Task: structure prediction
Amino acid sequence: MNDFLNYTLFKNGVFILTTGSLVSVLLTFIIVRIGLLFLKRLLARFFKNRNIDIGRQEAIYKLTAYLIWTITAITSLEIIGIHITFLLAGSAALLVGLGLGLQQIFQDLVSGIFILIEGIIKVNDVIELDGMVGKILSINLRTSKMQTRDGIMIIVPNHKFIVEKITNWSHNSDSTRFKVDIGVAYGSDVAKVKDILLACAKNQSEIIQNKEAGHDPFVRFVDFGDSALKFELFFWTTSIFTVEFIKSNLRFDIDENFRNHGVTIPFPQRDIHIKNQ
Result:
């Protein structure tokens, strides 16, 4: 066994790589991997007892895992005989050159650390970035994964969350307010229009009905338009990512109920008066 562990695999000057050191590194990585699995379970129980949201859980675990893997990598280098201080000193010029050429990557790495620590964006948050609405599936150290409503997976560099303006629809609360615009013909019974709109909102199971919390649907008479009386139907929902389906179902229901109650949705029109000279 000693002969096997002391067998030299590679030798270059004072550096000697033996079977024993290689086995030690492999065992170290296996032990760390298994340890992280147990740590994740322990943290999950800890977070559950304190009602910490899933996004913050993921951030804390990933930061801890990154730190442990960094220490493991440095320790592994020491085990096989590569001293990290010597390595850094000998490659200082190379690191400077890489730093100048990889500034964007370092910016993404630093942004990822800030995102994970501050929790400004968390897993399952619904955000709007560059005109696209998507759900955050994962936040890594350099990039994050976002899925759009079309099911397209987008890899987003983390610096975009820091330097650009984004809208986080689910940052402060699980529910968000949305609206549907409606126009009816002049001469319509506005009280009836209001009742129909509220009834349509109450028919949708995904729309919150909570008057005490101030999250009950309501109707606003916006303006006297050129061709229509303009209304807005406001509602709250927790189904933020699929809210466009809720809006679509509302419009179907509103159109059907307007037809049944004789309420007309007008189309833009102009009257032309011709004067005889």
Residues 28 and 72 are 8 Å apart (CA to CA). The mean pLDDT is 82. Residues 19-49 form the longest helix (31 residues).
